Each structure stands twice: as C-alpha cells, then as structure tokens.
Amino acid sequence: MKFLIIGQGLAGTLTGRRLELAGHTVHYIDAPEQTASSSVAAGIINPITGRRFVKSWRIDELIPEAKSCYLEFEKLLGLTFWHEQPLIRTLYNRGDLNDWQARSADAGYPEYMDDNPAPGRIPVLTVPVFAYAGVRHAARVDVAGLVAAFRERITSGDQLKTDRFDYSGVPRLLGAEPASGEGRRSAGATKGQKSSATYDHIICCEGWRARFNPYFSYLPHGGNKGEVLIVKTEAPVLDRMFKHRVFLVPLSDDTYWVGATSENKFPDDSPTPANRKFLEDRLAEVLTGTKYEIIDHRAAVRPTVRDRRMFIGQHPELPRLWIFNGLGTKGGSLAPLGSRWLAEAILNGSPIPAEVNIDRFSPKKEGL
Ligand SMILES: Cc1cc2nc3c(=O)[nH]c(=O)nc-3n(C[C@H](O)[C@H](O)[C@H](O)COP(=O)(O)OP(=O)(O)OC[C@H]3O[C@@H](n4cnc5c(N)ncnc54)[C@H](O)[C@@H]3O)c2cc1C
C-alpha cells in the first residue's frame, strides 16, 4: 500500500519506519521552517516522575519496546541513538527522603528505585544536596539525531517533500473527492471510497500544530512550550543525568542539555530573553564546580493532551485518514509502542487500546 505521512518528527518517523518494515511505500511531507518538538527534546526516559515519585504509565511495556525500536534505527542508520544512563534525582529534605523510601517499598517500584545510588562526579560538579536518589532503567534517546538522520535517508530516497501540507488536498489524495467544499463534514459524505487515490492512507503527525488540521481540530489539543539551553563545560561532563532545579543531561563533546521551562500559554514558539534568564539563574545555582559557556538557547512546543494520553486513531468519517499525536512530554518512551499500535490497527485491523484511541472524544462531545 501507499502511505502519506504529514509531519516528520518522532511520531511520523517511527510510524513510517514500521510501515516500511511491513513492505509498504511511505511518502512524507514536512514543513522545515517550523521548529519540531523532536528537535529540542532531551529524550529522557524516566520511569519514576514527579514530586510524588510515581511510576510512568505502562513503563514496564514501554521501555523494552523503546529499546528494540531505537536499536533497529541504529542498525538502519549506523548511528547511536539509545543511551542507557543512570538518572540521579535530588532529595531536598527529610520529607522527600521519607517519601522516596516509602514509595520504593511499594509493589512494582523496587526495580526502578535505588535508595543509595553512586552519584559519580555529581558532588564535585554541582551544589551539595540533602540526599541523592537513583532511578534505574532510565535512558536517553537522541530524538533530534534520529529524526535528522532518518530525514537524510528519506530525502535521498526521494520520499520527502519539504512543504506545508495543504489540507484541502485530502479528499483528492485519498480518491474521495467530495461533491463540493472541503473539511470533515463534506469529506464524510464519501465515506472512504477509494477511486483514483494517490494514497491508500494518510497519517497526520503534526505535533502541536495538529490544532490547525481541520479534520482533527475537534480533539482537545494542548500545547506546552519549553525552552532549553545547551552549555559547554570546561570539565568533562557527568556520565549520568541529574535532576535538580533543572535537568542536566550529558550530550557529547562536554556539552549538556539544560532544561526545561513549561508554559501552557504562549504567543509563539520562539525563545524568549525572560526564559533564558530563568534557565541561566537555575543553572548557576546547580552547576557550581566548573566553568561553562551557553552555546545555544532553543524553544519548541510539546504536543500535550487534556487527559495526558496519546491520540491514536481513525477519522470518524474518513476511515483512511489517521492521527498519531499527543506524545506530550514523553514522546521518547511513548512513540515506539504508540506507532506499533497504529501500524497494527491500519495493517491488521487490531484494536487500539481505549485509553489512547481518539474515539474517546467525539466531534459532538467536543461541541462541534
Ligand atoms: C523543551 C522540550 C523538552 C522535551 N524533553 C523530552 C524528554 O526529555 N523526553 C521525552 O520523551 N520527550 C521530551 N519532549 C517531548 C517530545 O519532544 C515530544 O513528545 C515528541 O518529540 C513529539 O513528536 P511529534 O512527532 O509528535 O511532534 P514534532 O516533533 O513537533 O513533529 C511534528 C512535525 O510536523 C510538522 N508539521 C506540522 N504541521 C505541518 C503541516 N501542515 N505540513 C507539514 N508539516 C507539518 C512540523 O514541522 C514538525 O516537523 C520535550 C519537548 C520539549 C519541547
């Protein structure tokens, strides 16, 4: 079959690869002038999150799926994307320590929680803390590197069009031209008929900009802007990730990813001086044991969803039009399993788990 994927961030890349592996032809369209969330993410996979130290949703399934997915990309592209790295968290006071210890006794938690982690060079390079806690099975995926390397591959394979997709072309591309007009309602009149189609299926993976997709704008798209710094240090970088008032994530060549801010309301997706200052101040409080230089400051918008679950599914009236979105703050861990669910739904008719299926929102319920 022939597929078109709109948006080549992490969601589009992983979905496209799964379809290719199943023997199908995949074309992509991506607007390169827009900043993708995938190009700014640290790609941290963190099984224990928040101040209450809660296990991430379905993490026992997500980690093995992520590892095998990213290792397959490593083999395909000849680069390293998957880094298993300990994650060290700061416990700020006795209360945090008690909470951590209590949680680590809960069923299903000991595998992920280390009460007595080796902090490596953290105490030398960063400010003293009350105590450290370790998160086991943490990892970092080089999301930006993976998406960029895959882009080169599909560019040389002539599969990528670099342009903004014009949604009025959907009925024509699916061979489902409506009698008049565009949009979900008129497109629905044709109920997925398939005469002279350019593509058998179209999959929408536009990240937070899916709110501008007229077919799926009824979904409760969020959007959370994040800004980050990239810094280069004088001393060699830590060999583990460190969460204090900011996250310090070792990259390569003695550089760190430092982030991130979080804003649900934003006029645009550009970096701002105020958020740069916020990050600089926090970094200065934490990274006290080495000189460093800020070499980049970036911003992007995370594709968040009201109920914090992915959007996977089929347009209610155009069954060959699909969406994969809502990866929120955790695309690195969610996208491998989410892309499998989507590919299996399209290719084999497998059911999409109800928690992530867009059927949980109907255009009617959303007031349309
Ligand atoms: C500051 C920050 C830190 C983060 N840190 C982490 C982390 O540590 N761990 C983690 O797992 N996740 C993290 N994330 C989240 C992660 O980036 C996302 O979950 C994931 O990358 C989303 O991928 P996506 O493909 O859905 O969207 P995107 O990466 O945004 O890709 C969407 C693509 O679609 C294109 N597009 C949109 N509309 C159109 C159109 N009409 N025509 C053509 N192309 C279009 C865009 O140009 C873009 O290339 C972070 C995000 C941010 C912003």
TrEMBL record:
One Gene Ontology CC term in the entry: cytoplasm
Natural source organism: Neolewinella aurantiaca
Keywords from the UniProt entry: Oxidoreductase
Classification lineage: Bacteria, Pseudomonadati, Bacteroidota, Saprospiria, Saprospirales
InterPro entries reported for this sequence: FAD-dep_OxRdtase, FAD/NAD-bd_sf
Annotated protein name in UniProt: FAD-binding oxidoreductase
Gene3D superfamilies documented for this protein: D-Amino Acid Oxidase, subunit A, domain 2 (3.30.9.10), FAD/NAD(P)-binding domain (3.50.50.60)
Acetylation in keyword set: no
GO molecular function: oxidoreductase activity
Keyword Zinc-finger listed: no
Superkingdom of origin: Bacteria
